[in-house]
Amino acid sequence: AADINIDSVQNVCLGDTVRLVPTSTTITNPVFLWYADQQKTTPITNGVNPATGVLTLTNLSTGTYTYYVSVSSNGNCANLAGDLKQVTVNVGRKATAADIQVTGNTTTCANTTVTLTASSTTVTNPVFRWYRDAALTQFIRSTSTFVTDTLTTTTTYYVTVQGVNACENAPGAAQSVTVTVTSALPAPTVSGAAICAGQTALVQVTNPDATVTYTWYNNQTRSVLLATADSFRTGPLTADTTLYVQASKAGCISQLVPAVITVNSVASPVVDANQPVCAGSSGTLVIKAPVNGVVYRWYNVPTGGTALNTDAGTSFITGPLNTSTIFYVEATGTSGCTGASGRVPVTAVITPAPGAPTLVTNNQTICAGGSVTFTIANPDPSVTYHWFTAAVNGTELTPTTPTTLTVNNVIATTTYYVSAVNAAGCSNAGGRTTATVNVNPAPTAPVVTIPNQVVCLNNSATFQVSNPDPALTYVWYGATNNDSLTTGTSFTTPVLTANMNYYVVAKNNTGCSSQSNTAVTVTVTNSIATPTVGANQTLCLGQTLTLNVINPVAGIVYHWYTTATGGTPVATGATVTFNGVIANTAYYVDASATAGNCTSSTRAMISVTVNSIPAAPAAANPGVTTCLNTTATLAVLNADPTLTYNWYTVQSGGTPVATGASVNVGPITTNTNYYVEDVNASGCPSAQRTLVTVTASTAPAAPQVSGNGQSQCPGSSYILTATSTTPGASFAWYTTATGGTPISQTSIFTTPAISQNTTYYVEASINGGCVSATRTAVPITVLAPLPAPVVTVTNKTATSITFTWTAIPGATGYVVSVGDSTHFVAPSTGATGTSHTVTNLQPNQNVTIYVRAIGVGTCQNSPITAVTDKTTNPNGNNCYVPNLFSPNGDGINDIEYVYGTAIAQLEFRIYNHWGQLVFESKDQRQGWDGTMNGVKQPVGVYVYILKATMQDGTVVTKKGNVTLMR
């Protein structure tokens, strides 16, 4: 047994699964076997894992169980009997709620705690565990004495117990204890207070309850009791304070409620005791470093009176003053508390204003663009002078010196203003002194026709004012711009041997000159270089030719020739133009001075090559008509593949809208002119463009069609007729809604034989190929057999049956046949009726009806529907044999029949009183006429025997008497 390791005693709870796990540290690869006794007479195999030797036990009842285990291995024999390892399993019960007793107060006030104590007289060494829920998932703590949380609502707790002789309660079996929380004592409502520094404050409960006690404290810990009353008045306070009040009643207390006391204090205003004010003006008295939220009120008396201001009062405007005046200001906080020092006096000290400044000259006149200077006459060194652009406010100007103002480039009459300000900041009375400058207009600078000229050595140059104004005088100057040479609209220089600069200005009748002069230059030369020209040019016949001198020199005159030497100039200028050039030409240009005979020694040449142009193209169709909002095809007639064809919407200029011998343009929204030109390989276009007009036509309306309204049988043809509201429209028939090839192009179209539903399409068109926007669909429906009627029986009696069917859409009527399907007639309710009644029937009689729906044509007739039913049988399986008949030939009751409405087979026998068979029949329609073998039988009583098999298989037998009378 010592080779086996396992707890010899194991305690478990009722319902637990027990696993007994043996191990061995001395046996290699041990094999464990379990027994119910030490003598190994009762092996245990159920619940044993052969590989591990673990014994699993389930469903054990409470009690003590003993098990025995042995061990063996390949090299060790199993334990001998009596030397097995013993394991004792104690299965304890689970505790119940009855095992636990809980004491403590189970009723309490809100916001308090409760102490609960658990004990047990049935569990040894009990251990208690407290939970918040019956499922025991929310564990609180393990203790016998349990202090609850602070409670605000009724709460249930759960406690379990476990000990030596009991396991912990199962979920749902714990002892519960409910603590009932009475309504919380409401927290009192209190009013705070706001006071000024040094005052006392009264705090009180709002609407106090006479049955409740109110206790005041100075802090939240309630360390100092201040009073027990509805209200409490403090002593003088200098700082904000918070007190606390609590209500109590019948042992319950409320939450502490704060009562806040705000102590307001305001500093006295800080001001300058003396503040200067200019005589006759309003003064502004100012608070230094004003405090946000504080209102400053100004008075003209030290106490009482009415405040002079209604705003925050950080500054105060006195109104015009001529004598020094004392004002008073006090500070008031938002709480209404004033500064401790009361009102503070402020003296507005009157300062005399300086005299108005006098100018040496108040009005001056200058030319536009000139400068003006205004000077103070007899300036006072104790004041400063301020210059402005307006009599009041305006922009202050910077003076040139303390007593002068200079303004440059004055272009319009302007008034300036000056005031004198003393050291106290007082301006002169009577407003600012005016200084006006009157500006005369200046003429514009003159324009010289040729301002830069080149002349030969020892020659003169002449300059001319362009478009001179006769009201102006033009003055010419030399290089220094102040040595006037002459006046006039033109100026001829002396003979020159060097380059010279001259200037000209314009003067009007007020003596004002143009604000700028016009410079002219003369360049003196003894030789002129041959001009430089551009490259040779190639152009098309009739085009415009432009020739240029590269980097032309100002003052040089350029003459163009068609000869290398001699000849007459054909044009003059640095850039010249020749219109309608038609032949190859060489052009030559030389350079000459403005005056003298200085000319370049050679002429520069430009060779011009003129290429031929093609003839204007011919249009394949000069007038094209197309549908509105569609494209149009434009084409050239007999296009030349060596030419390029460009299409325009303008007769000349513009940008091509298409290129090609045949092009598509559009969509066309209005009548439009197009122009085509052809361009040869040299890039030369035709001299003119050819006009092609495109007319936008409104598409015809989609056609209307008749002839397809009546459906026909398969294999029939239809004659379809198309019409249009557009006069002169043509028609085309298709088998597709778009595209495809027309199958007919006439207004009347006869279809081929049609065997199934088909749709044709037709479109309308007008001259120019404009077709309707859509094709009209023409559906043709081929007649198909109608569905067979659904026939039901809606009424039946012993002698009639009514058959009814639902109307078939498209049917023109119905036919019925009774008994067979070959002879049809109209229903009893008429040819279009939907019911038929069969009459003159016998009870329990079968009837078959055949119904067919009739269509427009025979091909539309429906299949036949057959329905069988039978009349009612009021008598059921009854059989009746009359007990008296009189076969005397009077036609009344001459035959003895068997009566019954449901007889399928019959055996009817009649016997005389000797038992002789006198009549026998198997046909219900064959009765006894009172004879036997043709001999009348005597009057008397006869016996009948009847055996009848009914239609439902029932066999009816009857026996009775029948009396024959004559």
TrEMBL record:
Residues 786-875 form the Fibronectin type-III domain. It holds the Pfam family CHU_C. InterPro entries: FN3_dom, FN3_sf, Ig-like_dom_sf, Ig-like_fold, Ig_7, T9SS_type_B. CDD domains: FN3. PROSITE patterns: FN3. It comes from the Bacteria. NCBIfam families: Bac_Flav_CTERM. This is Gliding motility-associated-like protein.
